[in-house]
Design goal:
single chain; four-stranded antiparallel β-sheet
């Protein structure tokens, strides 16, 4: 199983980005997928999660206002659309799947991870 994130890069404040999480060796539609981000020196924090039934949960209300999840069935992918980005969103973004139980936004609850994609918000 391999997850590959893409779509990161440099974006200006108040800009938008769409991150992709593409899977191989696993049918992503059958699994929950959760996006996390990690700031330097910090633990990974959850952003949003989509179940196999396409129910979406956000880790905090503030995430719900600016981040949106969707699936790309043909691409075996999950997308994280981010709007109104600020410097505080600068981090490495990861997707994870194969939820093993427990807290959906606990990184320890996932079996498979991608390598991450860097998002830098700066003018």
């Amino acid at each position: 199983v391999q997850l590959v994130e893409s779509g990161g890069g440099l974006v200006q404040p108040e800009g938008s980005l769409r991150l992709s999480c593409a899977a191989s060796g696993l049918k992503l539609n059958d699994y929950s997928v959760t996006w996390f981000r990690q700031f330097p020196g910090k633990e990974r924090e959850g952003i949003a999660s989509i179940t196999s039934d396409n129910a979406i949960t956000y880790s905090t209300p503030s995430m719900k206002g600016r981040f949106t999840l969707s699936r790309g069935n043909a691409e075996n992918s999950v997308f994280l659309q981010m709007h109104n980005l600020g410097p505080e969103d600068t981090a490495k973004y990861y997707c994870a799947t194969h939820f093993t139980g427990g807290d959906r936004f606990d990184p320890r609850s996932y079996l498979y991870w991608g390598q991450g994609t860097q998002v830098t918000v700066s003018s």
